[in-house]
Write a structure and sequence with these properties.
The complex is a heterotrimer of chains A (about 220), B (about 240) and C (about 210). Chain A is mainly alpha-helical and about 220 residues long. Chain A contains nine helices and no strands. In chain A, helix 3 (about 45-65) packs antiparallel against helix 8 (about 160-185), helix 6 (about 90-120) runs antiparallel to helix 7 and helix 7 (about 125-150) runs antiparallel to helix 8. The two termini of chain A are about 25 Å apart. The mean pLDDT of chain A is about 95. Chain B has a single domain (about 10-240), classed as Four Helix Bundle (Hemerythrin (Met), subunit A) (Up-down Bundle). Chain B has about 240 residues and is an all-alpha fold. Chain B starts with 8 loop residues before the first helix and ends with a helix. By secondary structure, chain C is α/β, with parallel strands linked by helices. In chain C, the strands form two sheets. In chain C, strands 6-7-8-3-9 form a five-stranded parallel β-sheet, sandwiched between helices. Chain C starts with a strand and ends in a 20-residue tail after the last strand. The chains are: A mainly alpha (about 220), B mainly alpha (about 240), C alpha/beta (about 210). Chains in contact: A-B, A-C, B-C.
Chain lengths: ~220, ~240, ~210
Amino acid sequence: MRPALALLLRDLRLALRAGGGAGLGLAFFLTCVLLMPLGIGPDLAMLSRIAPGLLWVAALLAALLSLDRLFQADLEDGTLEVLAVSALPLEAVAAVKALAHWLTTGLPLVLAAPVLGLTLGLPAQAQPWLVASLAAGTPALSFIGAVGAGLTVGVRRGGLLLSVMVLPLYLPSLIFGARTVALAAQELDPARAFLLLGAITVLSLGIGPFAAAAALRINLR
Amino acid sequence: MSLWEFANPARFMRISGAALPWVAGLAAVILPAGLAWGFFLTPDDYRQGSTVKIIFVHVPAAMMAINIYGMIVVASLIWLIRRHHVSALAARAAAPIGATMTVIALLTGALWGQPMWGTAWAWDPRLTSFFILFLFYVGYIALWAAIEDPDKAADLTSVLAMVGSVFAVLSRYAVNFWSQGLHQGATLSIDRDQNIDPVFWLPLLACIAGFFLLFLALLLVGTRTEIRARRARALQLAMAG
Amino acid sequence: MGLVVEDLVLSRGGRRVIAGLSLALAEGEALILRGPNGAGKSTLLRGIAGLTPPDSGRVLLTVDGRPAEIGEHLAWAGHLDAVKPQLTVAENLGFWAGFEGADPAAAMAALGLGAIADRPAASCSAGQRRRLGLARLMLARRALWLLDEPTVSLDAASVARVTAMVADHLARGGMAVVATHVELDLPRARRLGLTPAAGAGGAADPFLAGDYA
């Protein structure tokens, strides 16, 4: 536990330092959401109808934003090598770093979502479900993303490749996440979509660290 | 002779070289014959008219699109477990063929949809799933292309294929769920399994066999090309000292 | 405690660089790897660490007479320093100390880092960063140290410090494998000369066999 905690705290500290980009994911999310009314028009009825999908698509894109550096900086300065031969299994390293990624990009979105839901005219009864769906769904984005980041860690300018690879893996989360909010907005029962969203997240938490560690080992050879 | 004998590149080249003309020849006979049978010798459907005949391309292409992805997953697994180079290169060679089959399935689906739905594209769950499958192929091909070292590329793409297969299946179910929510029960989907008249069955089977043989021939050609490229690289490295 | 390498065959980028190497190392012993660039010093270190999986052969570490997981007894200092430029010297070492559950003070002192403790690593010289990277070795009591060119960009005084650090580690019954181009004055050190494996270059590749075109 102690090495894992040390690594988590270091990653959070690095994210908060200059150039760490902790706030950038949130800023990008806000910008994305702002772009929509500007592109579509200020019709609140229309916006409230598309708000669930819009917020979830913006969350997906924001999660992608800082993924390509998740392991790359540590590979470039040799930290990853040291971690790979340390007592902490590489699977745990991948999980901790994915968790740090979620804490710095996913969690701020969860906290900012109610405000944005409000500006897009999301019905009041859907607001808690928006927060709940992002809270339950965005960890999957970081943990699946870690697999993509592990696969492309050795590729220079791998950001675009990473997006092309990872976005299709995000689709189940997107569908169940956005449906949860949309069903709640229509005063239908969102429980089933929400449970499926949670199941995808649990699965991702299980698969992600192992696949990411396998990819990192291959890239460290 | 064990199946693993194929794993030796030199032996694979010999056997596949002998088999290729036969497979290609058989494909060149069966596929045109099946398509001609389907297009010209079957009656028009009483509801769908001659449009229905697109199933002779659409259905085999769609089946191949899915099965080739499955083949890539199996070949990747064999590479990861038994380190057979030919297996990894076969997976690499299969990907562009699978992507093309997916595009054919999408295009013929759209062509079919045009008169049926009055629009070329509908967000029908099956079409959407094929769209997603295409994206999986693109990601897989892009990863192969991005990594210099061939063994490393084989390993990494195998990991992607494994993880991808899990999420591809999940996407299929997620898309079904999504479409139920969109238009309650009113299904516009192209249901290939339902109510196919027996007169369509035999030519359809012939077309499926033809598509499969075509895939096999293309796969052999592709794998042989990959092996040659890999050998050229190895020779170059060896000569560089 | 001992390290045994049996018939180790290693490749780098499809080229065979170590062809059938065997060696044994006992408590308190150091192995100095010498040889020109491309001889496979780094690859051998990576092979022993388990970063590069061997084509064949094996690496065996025994602790108290039993085979042990090498990752739990290893301290690694590759040619990169594992230093974060955004963090200060003290923060960098503090992270690794927290990671290993150790006190960084002794390591700071041993490599003379006290004077620059609060300086951001980004503004350190290459030699200072190197010392910071090597200080990490002292944090955990690991049996086997693998060092890749530890003296690069170090001045004479720092080389002496690092040599003393390694000698102290050996005196406590540790082991070290060190790839280096400069002489290190270590007790009980054996030297292993590596040469670029002539002609063995492509032997690893199964695509060279056969006569197809």
